[in-house]
Design goal:
Layout lengths: L1 E2 L5 H16 L13 E2 L3 H7 L2 E4 L2 E5 H10 L1 H5 L4 E5 L2 E3 L10 E4 L10 E5 L1 H6 L4 H16 L10 E3 L3 E3 L11 E6 L6 E6 L1 H15 L5 H18 L1
Parallel strand pairs: 1-2, 1-5, 4-6, 5-8
Antiparallel strand pairs: 3-4, 7-8, 9-10, 11-12
């Protein structure tokens, strides 16, 4: 994991917390060693994060441009590794029809360089959801981390295809936010089709974690652990 100088320290600490909870505490440290590089000292990473477009006075960075720079990194070519990046710069996917993204993930594939890629920004969450930033950033970081291992599983019951596969429960970290989508109330089982805001999702995910000890629903947790085991098997 590495980050730029613009990201909040609180976001960095949440990133390290998710990696600790999902890798170290669940016994995957030897299979997926976590390395924290801190602030990037490589100019071309900084250049990638500042190549974007001007939107309403806000500079944005293309997640695609960052991915390309990561693939060109000498260390990546010498020892392929998953790139887990946190930034304080606003992001968009690289598609000029896309307004912004909180984060982007390319799931792990051991035959690719880099074998996996995640980048997450706290720019808009700091601006729009400062009152629930810890809950929102934790939800977003766990969400993108889980996508690294292809969770939720495509086609699984209880998922929907909106910009990738996502859970339909309103209190699972794998739900898609800031979109109109199918929603199932995690407490009552009631089905709706409506707009889901990140604030609502983050607060409900936090409540789930306090109650059950997990920010993922049971099925998404199964998918994530299955994904981890699958990648670990490829590395043997």
């Amino acid at each position: 994991m590495w980050h730029d100088r613009k990201v909040g320290r609180d976001t960095v600490e949440l990133g390290l917390r998710v990696l600790d909870e999902e890798i170290v505490r669940r016994g995957y440290e030897t299979k997926f060693p976590v390395k924290y590089f801190g602030v990037s000292s490589l100019d071309y990473f900084e250049e990638a994060l500042n190549v974007g477009r001007e939107t309403k006075g806000t500079e944005q960075a293309s997640t695609l441009a960052v991915l390309v720079k990561c693939a060109m990194e000498p260390y990546q070519k010498a020892e392929p590794h998953v790139e887990f990046v946190l930034t304080g710069i606003d992001l968009y996917s690289g598609d000029r029809n896309n307004n912004f993204v909180y984060g982007t993930t390319i799931p792990i594939n051991t035959g690719r360089i880099p074998p996996g890629f995640t980048i997450i920004s706290d720019y808009r969450i700091s601006e729009w959801y400062s009152d629930v930033k810890p809950q929102a950033m934790y939800t977003m970081i766990l969400h993108e981390f889980s996508h690294l291992f292809s969770a939720p599983r495509p086609g699984r019951e209880g998922t929907v295809e909106i910009l990738g596969t996502h859970c339909i429960l309103d209190d699972c970290a794998m739900g898609q936010v800031n979109v109109v989508r199918p929603v199932v109330n995690g407490r009552t089982g009631r089905y709706e089709h409506r707009f889901v805001d990140l604030r609502e999702q983050a607060v409900k995910v936090a409540k789930r974690k306090r109650k059950t000890g997990d920010a993922l629903c049971r099925e998404c947790r199964k998918d994530l652990e299955y994904g981890k085991e699958g990648i670990a098997e490829q590395l043997r």
